[in-house]
Specification:
By secondary structure, the protein is α/β, with parallel strands linked by helices. It contains 8 helices and 4 strands; from the N terminus they run αααβααββαααβ. The chain has helices at residues 8-20, 24-29, 32-48, 63-67, 72-82, 111-114, 119-134, 138-156, and strands at 52-58, 93-99, 104-109, 172-173. The chain is globular, with a radius of gyration of 16 Å. The two termini are 21 Å apart.
Length: 174
C-alpha cells in the first residue's frame, strides 16, 4: 500500500499522473484475449466455490479525486458498493480492484469471506498481480492471482451443487 502525498506539490503530481493515464491504458493492458481469459477463470472458479468474484480495472481516478487523495482502498470500497458486489446470497462477494495510474491492487471482500481469509492471503494475491504488472505482464499475473483466490475460496466455500451466478464474470474496465 502506498503512502498518499501530503504536500500541495505531491498532490498535484499525483493528480497529474492520474490525468495522464488515459482510458486507453486499460484496453492496452487488458486486451480482449486477456479479458476473455479472466472471464473464463472467474467462471471456472465459481464452479468450485460458492463465492462471487468481480474484477474492476480503472485506468485512473478523476483528477479531483486524485488531488483530494482518495485512496485506492476507498475507491475499491465505493465500487464494491456501487456494483452491488456485497449483494450476494451468502455475503461472499469479492472485488479485485486495479488502479493502473496508482500501480495498486486492492481486494474488498464481503463479511462472510472477509472473516475467514487472513490478511496475508489477500496481500499475496495483490502481490502476485503488482509484481507481474511491474514487469508488464498483466495477462499471466492476473490469471495467477485468480487461481490463488479460487484455491482459497474453494477451501473455505466449496461448491455444494448448482446455484445461480449472482454477479457478472466479465472484467469491468472503467
Amino acid at each position: 500500500m502506498s503512502t498518499l502525498p501530503t504536500s500541495f506539490a505531491g498532490r498535484c503530481r499525483r493528480a497529474l499522473r492520474h490525468l495522464l493515464t488515459g482510458s486507453a491504458s486499460g484496453k492496452r493492458c487488458f486486451p480482449p484475449a486477456t479479458l476473455a481469459a479472466i472471464e473464463q477463470a472467474i467462471d471456472e472458479g465459481e464452479k468450485l466455490h460458492r463465492a462471487e468474484v468481480r474484477l474492476i480495472v480503472e485506468a485512473a481516478l478523476d483528477v479531483g479525486a486524485a488531488f483530494r487523495n482518495v485512496s485506492n482502498r476507498a475507491r475499491a470500497r465505493a465500487l464494491f458498493a456501487q456494483y452491488g458486489i456485497w449483494d450476494t446470497e451468502e455475503n461472499c462477494g469479492v472485488l479485485i480492484y486495479v488502479n493502473l495510474a496508482a500501480h495498486e491492487v486492492d481486494i474488498v471482500a464481503d463479511r462472510n469471506v472477509g472473516r475467514q481469509v487472513p490478511e496475508q492471503d489477500w496481500q499475496a494475491i495483490c502481490g502476485t498481480m503488482t509484481q507481474g504488472f511491474a514487469q508488464g505482464d498483466f495477462h499471466h499475473s492476473t490469471l495467477a492471482a485468480l487461481r490463488q483466490l479460487n484455491d482459497i475460496l474453494h477451501k473455505l466455500f466449496p461448491a455444494d451443487g448448482t446455484r445461480p451466478n449472482q454477479l457478472p464474470n466479465d472484467a469491468l474496465i472503467l
